[in-house]
Design a protein that fits this description.
By secondary structure, the protein is an alpha+beta fold. Helices cover 29% and strands 27% of the residues. The chain has seven helices and nine strands, in the order E-E-H-H-E-E-E-E-H-H-E-E-E-H-H-H. The protein has helices spanning 29-32, 35-62, 135-154, 163-166, 216-219, 225-230, 239-243, and strands at 14-17, 21-27, 72-84, 88-98, 105-114, 119-121, 178-182, 192-197, 210-215. The chain has a six-stranded mixed beta sheet. A three-stranded antiparallel beta sheet has the order 7-8-9. A hairpin with a 3-residue loop joins strand 1 (14-17) and strand 2.
Length: 244
């Protein structure tokens, strides 16, 4: 349903609009309040706009018939999921893409930002080791799959809670899934890790996105002193709904 007052719709922070594509990038207000983080997201978003505009132009050249009803429609939103010890900021990057296929598609990715260093980092500093197929990553995968099975049971989609659908979740930092630090009931802490999966990643398109939650207690044996410092408390009530 379209909004009754178009004036109330937020204005994109970057946009490309031509006969091949309309693509928009939005940053939430909390991101805009941090100049370095906003600049990083905007640079990332503009690169994405340019790439899709080039793809759309090439596609139109090759298959003009797919553009008879108009150009492609793309949207990316950056939003803050958690801020831990006023140091680590977890962001969600949600993409919507309509290239006039059978249905529009969506994707989700994450960014972990170190406010002190003013740069993107990974979750490595929180764990004593994160080697592919190492004990930390194996424990994470086990906990992720257990969480996804619970999610699937809740949604009545247990028939797709199979090894075949979970084979993409591998014990490797680059292949386990897009990760964020989950908020906590303890101020300034994180209650664990949430892993975000777009449609098709761990279930058919119709099932949509999934979020797996791994409590910090499960990861306790693998934490570095910095990991032990930032994790604590429990997952806030309602976070499971908000994380989707």
């Amino acid at each position: 349903m379209s909004s009754p007052s178009l004036a109330a719709d937020p204005k994109p922070d970057a946009v490309i609009k031509n006969r091949n594509i309309e693509a928009r990038v939005f940053l939430d207000d909390k991101i805009k309040a941090d100049a370095a983080l906003a600049a990083d997201c905007l640079a990332d978003g503009r690169k994405w706009l340019d790439k899709n505009a080039a793809d759309a132009a090439a596609s139109r050249k090759e298959d003009p018939q797919f553009f008879k009803d108009g150009g492609w429609d793309f949207e990316r939103k950056y939003s803050i999921r958690s801020v831990v010890s006023d140091h680590y900021v977890s962001l969600l990057r949600d993409d919507y893409m309509d290239t006039h296929g059978a249905h529009p598609n969506s994707d989700v990715n994450t960014i972990l930002w170190d406010k002190t260093e003013g740069k993107r980092i990974s979750i490595r500093p929180f764990f004593t080791e994160t080697a592919d197929n190492g004990s930390t990553m194996k424990a994470m995968v086990k906990a992720v799959i257990a969480s996804l099975k619970i999610e699937k049971k809740k949604r009545d989609t247990s028939e797709t809670a199979t090894d075949e659908w979970f084979k993409g979740v591998e014990p490797s930092l680059l292949k386990i899934g897009a990760v964020t630090l989950a908020p906590s009931t303890d101020a300034g802490k994180s209650s664990g890790l949430t892993f975000h999966y777009p449609p098709y990643a761990v279930g058919p398109y119709a099932e949509g996105q999934y979020v797996a939650y791994v409590p910090w207690e499960t990861l306790k044996p693998y934490l570095t002193p910095e990991g032990a410092r930032i994790f604590g408390g429990a997952r806030p009530k309602g976070d499971a709904d908000e994380a989707q």
